[in-house]
Amino acid sequence: MTCDEARRWLDEETTSPEADRHRRSCASCRLAFAQARFIDRAVRAFPVPELHDDYWKIYQRRLHARLAARRPRWPVSVGIAAAVLLAVGALFAIPRPDSPARFESHAVEPTRPHWRPLIQRVESDDAATVLAALRLLETLRLPESLPTLKAALGSQPWRDEAILRTIARISPPLCESVFREALACPDLQAAATAACAELRPELAVRLLLGVYGELTVAPRAAADDLLHSHAAITRRLLLPRLFSASDAHAAMLAPLAASVHLREAAPRLLRLTRSEEHRRAAVLALARLDNPALLASLWDLPAQEIAAFVREGGPKAVEHLRRSALAANMRVARAAIDLLPEFADAQTLRTLAAAMGRSSTHAAAVRAIERVGTEEAIALLLEGFREAPSKGEIVRALGRMRSPAIRPRLLRMTGEPRVPLDALAEALEAYPREQIVPELIPWMERFDARGRAHELLKRLTGKKMGPHAGVWKQWWSTRIKEDA
Amino acid sequence: MTDEELVDEHRAGRADAFDRLVERYRAPAYRFCYRMLGNHHEAEDASQEAFVRTFTGLARFRREAPFRSWLFHILANVCLTWRRSMRDKPGAFATDPPAERQPAPIELDEFQKQLQAAIQRLPDKQRLTLILRVDENCGFEEIARILDITPLAARVNLSLARRNLRETMPPHLLEPCR
């Protein structure tokens, strides 16, 4: 047992054998226990004046005098309310409240339920009557009427938002059950959700989270607004709910968790990504948590889900994706490179250029730049060509891009022995033979490129006419005439 | 008869029900106020004020907590208000009481004087927690209810109170526990 564990017993009346054993062997804990017990004993033994029966008789007499002298203190608002009550008394036929009970000679008269007629009106079928009665009860503030009012409300359908708002203002303990039932009723959800604004924030959030999964679209939007406005409370109450919820329920709460920036929800959401059914909701929520580092936990997911995370996560997530493209982990780096074309901009192209310079990610980066397909991408491939560890990939990519601007550059590669002939032939095959062959034949006249040009012509035309440029020229002009 | 049954009797109009509650709790209430305020006259006034508030508030008592907790909640509030008004108006309660209310004077030794001073210097919540725990044997749940804090906060308050007492008491007075 450690000192910390042993000292947990410090505040207890009893102790445990382990703590005793620890104390015997640990001087500091022994002292802490001894001091605590010493102080407790000293406080307990601190002398209090000894008071005899005679004193208590005087005490009791004096207390009675104070009680008799004390008029119950009614707040000003109740005075105003009483005036209002008198004014509308005729309408509601409410008897005037009796004078508040006074403590006189030990006689305590039970309070007469002058509010009873109001409660009867609360049970009325007419919404206007119910609302008027509730508003009077709100103004009068009669705590003793609450149990009866609660029972009366139990038989009420509460009808509308105004009634629910008034109930909320009368008493939080009273309104909890009323709101819970109203929120569970599809017809009243919208009114109850709106009326939740009158409740104490903690209660409103607790109630809304309790029924969140059952809310229809419009009430849920209203609930979201309210929950966002009390984001701190929502975060506190949502977290345990999220961890104890089923996967389906957690997936439904995921957007809310994200929108209130409940970062602690990330482990639960990551667990949710294992479920194919709830993966998308979890990934989007994770992205909205504004923590791009979470990307590192998602590399096992299908590429489209990772892309969804980056799309939703915005510039920070894209930046993280770029960094991942240069990661030491090759699997991660290649996966990130595959996703980067979707987020192509100048910065992304620079990242891809850097990845192209690494032999382990060269091929993936070249394919990614090819998919970007812009003029900048072509320029990047051509620029990286000189330093590239494997020129074949770039040449093939350039061929597949089929840009007229690239063709002269590809033809010039005929005279560059470091460019693999297979790759160059493959690239040139992407262009029409009518364009390529006449441009390639003059290369036969160059001493340093004759062999490679001849080989390329053989592959592109399937003809074997020897290494003389004149023979190839004659064949080509004959063929043009025949075609014409 | 339990406290809650006496409350019901009082609500039903039984004249002596509240008296019986006062008889049951006057000594603990006085003791608690004395520990908090450190003065007989203020302890008497404060405990009586708490009983008056209890009487006027009994209609609102809803049994969400035991009566004892509720009473101590009121006592704690009264004592804190009392102390604040003492700070604002020094000498406000310094009038001489009638002779029949004077209890026998208490002789305090040096240790007790130092302890009293150290307890009086504790922050309100710590002092309340210490007194409720050590003197009234309240559990942490009950202390939490009385002071409207969490049980964990009650534990922390007690721990801090002990530490503060240990640190503010002259070391030679704590020698016996070494």
Distance between the termini of chain A: 99 Å
The count of β-strands of chain B is: 0
CATH architectural type of the largest domain in chain B: Orthogonal Bundle
Number of strands of chain A: 0
> What is the distance, rounded to the nearest whole angstrom, between the alpha carbons of the first and last residues of chain B?
46 Å
Largest sheet properties of chain A: none
Radius of gyration of chain B: 18 Å
**CATH class category of the largest domain in chain B:** Mainly Alpha
**Count the helices of chain A. How many?**
28
Give your account of this protein's structure.
- The complex is a heterodimer of chains A (484) and B (178).
- Chain A is mostly helical and 484 residues long.
- Among the domains of chain A are: 1-46, no CATH class; 59-97; 401-484, no CATH class.
- Helices cover 66% and strands 0% of the residues of chain A.
- Chain A is built from 28 helices and no strands.
- Chain A has helices at 3-7, 17-25, 27-44, 53-69, 76-92, 116-122, 127-140, 146-154, 161-170, 172-184, 189-195, 201-211, 217-229, 231-244, 247-259, 266-272, 279-288, 303-325, 330-339, 346-356, 362-372, 375-385, 391-401, 407-412, 421-428, 433-440, 450-461, 469-483.
- Chain A is elongated and about 140 Å long.
- The N and C termini of chain A lie far apart (99 Å).
- Chain B is mainly α and 178 residues long.
- Chain B folds into 2 domains: 1-99, RNA polymerase sigma factor, region 2, helix turn helix motif (Rna Polymerase Sigma Factor, Chain: A, Orthogonal Bundle), CATH 1.10.1740; 102-178, Winged helix-like DNA-binding domain superfamily/Winged helix DNA-binding domain (Arc Repressor Mutant, subunit A).
- Chain B has 8 helices and no strands.
- In chain B, helix 2 (17-37) packs across helix 4 (67-88) and helix 4 (67-88) crosses helix 7 (140-147).
- The model of chain B is unreliable at 89-101 (pLDDT under 50).
- The chains are: A mainly alpha (484), B mainly alpha (178).
- At the A-B interface, helix 3 and helix 4 of A face helix 2, helix 3, helix 5, helix 6 and helix 8 of B.
